[in-house]
Backbone:
C-alpha cells in the first residue's frame, strides 16, 4: 500500500439517512454523485447528496465526502486505515463506505478544515 494517497474532496454536501428495514428504495436516492444503500436486520441506511433528501426523512446532514482516487484490489490491507487513523487522532468522527475499487470517507462539514489538515500532515495529497 502506498504511503501517500491522492484523495479528492467531492464538491457536494451529503446526507446519511435511516429508513426502516423493508422500506422501498426511494425514487429520490439515485442521481448524480456517490450514492449507496445498505440494509441490515436493524435498519436501512442511505447515503446521497443532501439536496435530494426530503426534509421529512430522518437524516444526518452536512457531511462532506473524500474519495480515494487510486484504485486498489479489494484485498489490499491498510488503505482505508491510512485515512481513518489520522482523522481519528484529530478527533474527527467518520462514516466510511467502500466500493469494489475505492473508498469514500465522510466527515462532518464542521470538521472539514481540520480533516484536510490531518490528512495532509499524514502525507496524503488532497485535491479540492
Residues:
Amino acid at each position: 500500500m502506498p504511503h501517500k494517497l491522492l484523495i479528492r474532496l467531492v464538491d457536494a454536501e451529503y446526507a446519511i439517512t435511516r429508513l426502516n428495514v423493508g422500506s422501498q428504495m426511494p425514487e429520490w436516492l439515485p442521481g448524480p454523485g456517490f450514492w449507496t444503500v445498505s440494509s441490515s436486520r436493524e435498519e436501512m441506511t442511505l447515503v446521497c447528496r443532501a439536496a435530494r433528501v426530503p426534509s421529512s426523512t430522518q437524516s444526518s446532514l452536512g457531511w462532506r465526502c473524500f474519495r480515494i482516487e487510486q484504485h486498489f484490489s479489494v484485498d489490499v490491507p491498510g488503505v482505508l486505515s491510512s485515512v481513518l487513523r489520522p482523522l481519528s487522532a484529530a478527533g474527527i468522527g467518520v462514516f466510511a463506505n467502500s466500493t469494489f475499487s475505492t473508498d469514500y470517507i465522510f466527515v462532518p462539514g464542521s470538521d472539514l478544515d481540520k480533516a484536510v489538515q490531518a490528512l495532509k500532515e499524514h502525507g496524503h495529497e488532497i485535491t479540492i
Notes: The first strand starts at residue 6 and ends at 19. The chain has two helices and seven strands. Helices lie at 81-89, 112-121.
